[in-house]
Specification:
The complex is a heterodimer of chains A (736) and B (163). By secondary structure, chain A is of the alpha+beta class. Chain A contains 18 helices and 26 strands. The chains are: A alpha+beta (736), B alpha+beta (163).
Chain lengths: 736, 163
């Protein structure tokens, strides 16, 4: 699978390999904690060991006595750490609750003291010696526990885009349907667990606060710290050039940043803090537990007449993390009536949040499992059934889709997989090694979101092009996509394009999430390239000799800037971007609706004695508009498939009524897919530009690639065993 | 230093250079490499020996440096990602990682490469399944496993063919 070159404008091959791969394979890429400044001190948290309650007293004397300890802080003053708010409520933080401000313990694992020491050994030891005395209170960590509080989302958060989706009278249509399917499907809580834990290095240069952080949202860190500490945002500089995986867990400001910034100011020293792996299970967000009841009504041929999707989703006691599961379940097929209902269940945990395909993967596990049941109930082939229910327009708004090639994804995938050789009878296909074969299919979609973006571009007389744009590189390949666009347009070698992302000094850094990063950055970069061509007088669409063109202007460097918006967005939205807020458009635009689409075909093998489930091959066909960077996009899709396999067969964050918090807080006890779990994954792209969505024609790929995988695995397991899976992950005991 | 006032001497080589340090005996090889020697190519993913991001070679054998007390490598030769080749060049497996896009975020990559080099040297590359098994101590959360196996396969075959 060695990467091949593709043609540039003038037919010259363009190197499409990941542009920052060299730095990454040599260990030279600098992640947030890869800095050891002079005089560095190390921070560590002590955390609460009760499910809920208050701290009656806390003895820090043993911790303070540890040689090398510079500072122990159990409570900051109210004027030291101001409120910054939950990101989904207009703030900047992972949750509204900022620990270390009072005696209240809202959940197990909440930080109760910060220790700063000369070295890691002392910091770790001192954190262990913090001695709290607690008064405990009853708590609920399960959504069906006594004390969990259920809210109707559209009443609790009266925002139009969070209202329940209703089209026609779905309940009446369901009752009148000749074929009715009802099923309940449960998604457990899960943790994103990027390989790089939350980590930061901060120091002060006079009044200026300099922050290296691992974040998908350098803007939120900048403005959040300014608000929290009561300083000017212009005095906060945040860089996050390489993120060791984000997956949504790093999409807003974390709770250690304010405390270590204050510690650094008090000590007059730089402070580094790397959260321990177990702590990242309680200090960062997680995918909440959710229970989905799906009802499908259809005619005898499986043509959908009604769909009802009711969701109960966990949130915290202190914040409402909105559920958006029905945004996708209402649109995958041409269903004439639909009723969604989303409720939030408050439990005593840190606030949950976005984790790769946060709502879409659980929603599609439910919907696409039900569709598989419908295929069996009506005797139709699962691929045929899906094609028969393809939608010509958005069933919710009646607007056209800006692009929808789902049918083509299904057809191409079926051909490539060899679906026509499938015997639909469960348990009927036996592999040469004696294991039971199961072949499953599922489709998926993910909303097309987009944010305004500002790009600064300069051409230098040495032939280099430097692009600074809003966006964060967390492995998805945004740096590569930007460099390829510039190189292809101007006909310059890829290595002559330098891309700066994740740097508040270079351009406003809106949150990069929701698969909008590339679709938002590339239009701004393209617009900047167009501006640069004008500034250099090279508007003919030919390759440009940058050196000559810059010198011809009598300058050593020529600089341009461009700003682009999502469809229907106006320049006023720049206030939000520049103020550190969210400025998200889509998926419903004034004249069309945008989604990315995918079809997954999965083979499982169930070992007859142990019932161990393996996934030897997957075929995934994606419609993400134009593919901006073929190498990194294919890797992203394979990664999404790996995540889907993990969701289907491995990942669950376990809770216990007795202890509170999460129990399996290590990478040993929270198993994610390892190399031996993964085999052949074939990826294909439709590669049709979606030019209504943006002038470059790109749509998101990173999350849609995961949507539907768990359902396809579950449907394959059903095909192998005859058992319908109603809860993830699928365990051996479910197929005995 | 900490409550335990006794320090110990470490003398070893790291990437061929002599290193002499006074250490708290509780300091891990990982923290010494990163925080004292500023060799930050080796990554901390879990600090518990579960993820493999901190993999280095000690006398040619792969170890998770987070679970290796630094003092334990006294008299031994430590090799990190910064030392797999002479200055400037790429090890064939590093090149194969680039060519097969065997990485995404890159955080686990130094550990994957250190494990991959050892896996090839150990001869655990007879089949792709054997490569998968012997690289399963290195988690890649981005899910670059298909590329990682391809990169190790390509390098192992080239090594076997005397390339």
């Amino acid at each position: 699978m060695t990467v091949t070159d593709i043609a540039a404008t003038a037919g010259r091959p363009l190197d499409t390999r990941r542009v920052d791969a060299y730095e990454k394979v040599t260990g030279r890429a600098r992640y947030s904690a890869d800095r050891v400044p002079e005089g560095l001190a190390y921070g560590a948290f002590a955390t609460a060991r009760i499910g809920k309650g208050r701290i009656v007293r806390i003895d820090a004397s043993a911790a303070e006595a540890v040689p090398g300890v510079a500072l122990v802080i159990t409570t900051f003053g109210p004027d030291e750490l101001h409120d910054i708010g939950f990101i989904m409520a207009g703030g900047h933080a992972v949750q509204s609750l900022q620990p270390l401000r009072d005696d209240h313990v809202a959940y197990r694992g909440q930080p109760i003291a910060l220790v700063v020491a000369d070295n890691l050994v002392a910091a770790t030891e001192a954190a262990r010696l913090i001695k709290p005395e607690y008064e405990t209170e009853p708590f609920a960590v399960k959504i069906d526990a006594e004390g969990a509080n259920t809210l109707v989302q559209e009443q609790a958060i009266p925002l139009p885009f969070l209202a329940d989706i209703k089209v026609g009278d779905a309940d009446a249509a369901f009752e009148a349907s000749p074929v009715r399917i009802t099923g309940t499907y449960e998604q457990p809580a899960q943790h994103a667990m990027p390989m790089e834990p939350n980590a930061s290095v901060v120091h002060w240069e006079g009044e200026r606060l300099i922050v290296n952080d691992t974040t998908q949202n350098a803007n939120a860190v900048r403005f959040g710290l300014a608000t929290q500490l009561g300083i000017d945002p212009a005095d906060v500089e945040v860089t996050s050039p390489y993120i060791g995986g984000g997956f949504g867990q790093k999409n807003s400001m974390h709770m250690h940043l304010g405390p270590i910034a204050i510690a650094s100011r008090r000590l007059g020293r730089p402070v580094k803090m790397v959260l321990s792996r177990p702590q990242t299970f309680h200090t960062g967000s997680f995918r909440p537990n959710s229970v989905h009841t799906v009802r499908l009504g259809a005619d005898e041929n499986g043509r959908l007449l009604a769909a009802i999707h009711e969701v109960d989703q966990q949130t915290s006691r202190h914040d409402l993390f909105p559920c958006m599961a029905t945004e996708v379940s209402s649109r995958l097929y041409a269903v004439p009536t639909f009723r969604g209902r989303q409720r939030l269940v408050q439990t005593d945990v840190q606030t949950p949040g976005y984790m790769r395909a946060p709502h879409e993967s659980p929603a599609m596990f439910a919907l696409e499992s039900a569709m598989d049941e419908l295929a069996y109930a009506t005797g139709r082939d699962p691929v045929e059934l899906r094609l028969a229910n393809d939608a010509a327009v958005d069933p919710v708004t009646g607007l056209p889709f800006s692009g929808r090639h789902l049918a083509e994804c299904l057809r191409r995938g079926a051909t490539r997989f060899g679906w026509d050789k499938r015997n639909p009878e469960p348990g009927s296909m036996i592999a040469e090694d004696g294991s039971i074969l199961g072949w499953g299919v599922a489709a998926g979609c993910y909303p097309g979101n987009i944010v305004p973006s500002i790009a600064h571009m300069s051409a230098t007389d040495d032939g280099t092009i430097t692009v600074a744009v809003g966006g964060h590189e967390m492995g998805q390949g945004i740096r590569s996509a930007v460099a390829l666009l510039v190189a292809r347009d101007l006909g310059v070698p890829v290595h002559k394009v330098i891309v700066q992302v994740g740097d508040t000094r270079a351009a406003p850094q809106h949150l990069t999430a929701g698969s909008w990063g590339t679709a938002s950055a590339l239009p701004a970069v393209q617009a900047a390239v167009d501006e640069l061509r004008k500034a250099l007088d090279v508007t003919e669409p030919d390759d440009v000799d940058i050196q000559a063109a810059v010198r011809a202007k009598g300058k050593s460097v020529v600089t341009v800037e461009a700003t682009t918006f999502g469809p229907g967005q106006t320049p006023q939205i720049l206030d939000q971007l520049k103020g550190g807020g969210l400025a998200i458009g889509g998926p419903v635009f004034p004249e069309f609706v945008t989604f990315s689409w995918v079809a997954h075909f999965v083979e499982v093998r169930v070992e007859p004695t142990t019932r161990r489930i393996r996934v030897p091959r997957v075929v995934s066909v994606v419609d993400c508009g134009r593919v901006a960077s073929p190498v990194t996009a294919a890797s992203q899709v394979r990664g999404g498939v790996v995540w889907g396999i993990g969701a289907a067969l491995r990942e669950e964050s376990e809770v216990d009524d007795h202890f509170g918090g999460f129990l399996n807080t290590t990478l040993e006890e929270y198993p994610v897919p390892v190399n031996a779990d993964i085999h052949q994954i074939d990826v294909e792209f439709i590669d049709e530009p979606d030019l209504l969505f943006n002038p470059v024609g790109v749509k998101g790929a990173g999350e849609v690639s995961m949507v539907g995988v768990a359902a396809a695995v579950a449907n394959a397991v059903h095909h192998a065993t005859g058992r319908r899976m109603h809860r993830l992950p699928i365990r051996l005991e479910n197929v005995l | 230093m900490s409550t335990n006032d006794s320090t110990v001497e470490l003398a070893c080589t790291v990437n061929g250079a002599d290193v002499q340090l006074e250490l708290d005996p509780r300091e891990s090889l990982l923290d010494v490499l990163r925080e004292r020697l500023a060799l930050t190519g080796t990554k901390k993913g879990c600090d518990q020996g579960h993820c493999g991001a901190c993999t280095v070679h000690v006398d040619g054998r792969r170890v998770v440096s987070c679970l290796t007390p630094a003092v334990q490598v006294t008299g031994q030769a430590v090799t990190t990602i910064e030392g797999v080749t002479a200055q400037g060049g790429l090890h064939p497996l590093q090149q194969a990682f680039i060519d097969n896009d065997a990485l995404q975020c890159g955080y686990c990559t130094p550990g994957q490469i250190m494990s991959g080099i050892a896996c090839i040297a150990e001869g655990h590359t007879e089949t792709d399944d054997q490569i998968r098994e012997y690289l399963s101590g290195n988690i890649c959360r981005c899910g670059a496993y298909v590329g990682i196996v391809a990169a190790v396969r390509q390098t192992a075959d080239a090594t076997r063919n005397g390339a």
